[in-house]
Design brief:
With 70 residues, this protein is an alpha+beta fold. It contains 3 helices and 2 strands. Strand 1 (24-27), helix 2 and strand 2 form a beta-alpha-beta unit. The chain starts with 7 loop residues before the first helix and ends with a helix. The relative contact order is 0.16.
Length: 70
């Protein structure tokens, strides 16, 4: 817990300092698939969100579009 929400810089710092010894979880503020992807790219391996259904629906739509394109 802290005085402000996490930032991508916070995640990068944790990833660098922890060097794979623990998995990083982002919780709070994860509302979209794009944000979840950004978090994953930054090093987050787990996320806590109440927006699971819309995120999974967006992911399904994206996967369906990729399948149709190939």
């Amino acid at each position: 817990f802290g005085p402000a929400p996490y930032s991508m810089e916070d995640i990068a710092l944790m990833k660098r300092l922890l060097d794979g010894r623990v998995k990083i979880k982002a919780s709070g503020g994860v509302r979209t698939l794009d944000h979840l992807k950004q978090l994953h790219d930054a090093g987050v391996e787990r996320a806590g969100t109440i927006h699971t259904v819309p995120i999974l629906e967006s992911w399904k739509t994206e996967l369906d579009a990729q399948r149709q394109a190939s």
